Amino acid sequence: xxxxxxxxxxxxxxxxxxxxxxxxxxxxxxxxxxxxxxxxxxxxxxxxxxxxxxxxxxxxxxxxxxxxxxxxxxxxxxxxxxxxxxxxxxxxxxxxxxxxxxxxxxxxxxxxxxxxxxxxxxxxxxxxxxxxxxxxxxxxxxxxxxxxxxxxxxxxxxxxxxxxxxxxxxxxxxxxxxxxxxxxxxxxxxxxxxxxxxxxxxxxxxxxxxxxxxxxxxxxxxxxxxxxxxxxxxxxxxxxxxxxxxxxxxxxxxxxxxxxx
Length: 261
Hints:
By secondary structure, the chain is mostly helical. It has helices at residues 3-27, 44-50, 53-84, 92-104, 107-120, 127-150, 156-163, 168-197, 200-205, 212-222, 226-260.
């Protein structure tokens, strides 16, 4: 990597991560004013956050919504990947374009369209509508993760299992599925993370459901408080833990598969 490439990398990393560093620093600052110079170190904002019932309710709501989003993204991504990598699938290109639509269309436009369709068919806004809409947004990412493994899978293993008397379902469960577990774990994690980070779709489809992202956005519009910094740091930390656990599981699974090969 040349000097120009390194400089671009440093600028991009600073642009992405410097706000997070500043957010973390101010969450420990012993002052209600978020400005330099810092006045001291304190954990008071985290103590206030732990006593904030609205934060706890919002986080639990977001967590409960994110779990089915992760599962749906994983399952739908698996089915889409099986279709994309099927040998005789004639409409592979068109199907791939359709899968990319939720990624290419701006989320505000997509959210309005989803809200209009659900209203037209009489589907009320709320947790179920939010889960379905967020799963659609996570689908392209989940499909990409699983398809990347599917295209490298040796289809002759399935044929060998069938020749030995296994049914298609047994061949899938005992031959293909173990190879896909790291990718499925990653697809689930992506769905959960995208759901926790979503604000745009929640604004249109949450209804009376109040996920954490909506609560934080509402509080920021009224007042910029230090405990909101602590709230975001906690969410970032939990997201980092989820990503780390998923990566650890993926690496262990890959090492196990490599040792068995």
